[in-house]
Each structure stands twice: as C-alpha cells, then as structure tokens.
Amino acid sequence: MAGRALILFAHGARAESWKAPFERLRGMTQARMPDVPVSLAFLELMEPRLPAQVAALAAEGVSGITVVPVFLGQGGHVLRDLPLMIDALRVAHPGVAITVVGAVGEDPDVLKAMTDFCVAAARP
C-alpha cells in the first residue's frame, strides 16, 4: 500500500444514482494518480462514511491522507462538521497525517470550467 492516499469526500444522498458522477470523478482521478489510492467517502446516507474509510486506509498502512471536499462551497458541513470529524480521526489514528483542502467548487479553475459550461449551454 502506498504511503499516502486521497479521499474524495461528498455529502451522500438516498438515491443510489446520485453517486455515479462521484464514482466517475474517482475513476478519472485514480487514472491520473495510479500510484495513490483514490477513494470516495460520504458524510451521510451512503457508504463508506469518512471515519470508516480513514480507518480502512490506516489499517492498510497509509501514513498520509488528503481529504478533498467535493462540495460547491464552504457551507456548514465543510466549515463545522468536517473539522470535528477530522479532529476525532486525528485522535483515533495518530500515525496518519490527515490534510483537508478547500471545497472543490471554490477553486478558480473549477469555477472557470463551470462558467464555460454555463456559457456554452446558453449558446444556440
């Protein structure tokens, strides 16, 4: 197992079909990082939940995990819930360095791609 891993962290939903774009994103990311395990984890309603995914990676010997919130913005889940979970995970897995980056939707390149999509959709 690699020394580091990437977790794409999403909200979760009751409809199983909601997971499909996140699975595609995970697959596309994994293809670009073949030596780094890339997985999905969810806040609620879907499995695996973030604590279970971090525990599984820690058990496999991963020493560093980057968590990417696949959210459009820094709402309550990213600002309040995620930091509390990360604090608890750092206590539960002291040998694993856990880094959290900003919400994907706040990245300027992601916003540009979304703008390009919206502009293209408005063209005849």
Automatic annotation (TrEMBL):
<dbReference type="GO" id="GO:0046872">
    <property type="term" value="F:metal ion binding"/>
</dbReference>
<dbReference type="InterPro" id="IPR002762">
    <property type="entry name" value="CbiX-like"/>
</dbReference>
<keyword id="KW-0479">Metal-binding</keyword>
<dbReference type="Pfam" id="PF01903">
    <property type="entry name" value="CbiX"/>
</dbReference>
<dbReference type="InterPro" id="IPR050963">
    <property type="entry name" value="Sirohydro_Cobaltochel/CbiX"/>
</dbReference>
<keyword id="KW-0456">Lyase</keyword>
<protein>
    <submittedName>
        <fullName>Cobalamin biosynthesis protein CbiX</fullName>
    </submittedName>
</protein>
<dbReference type="GO" id="GO:0016829">
    <property type="term" value="F:lyase activity"/>
</dbReference>
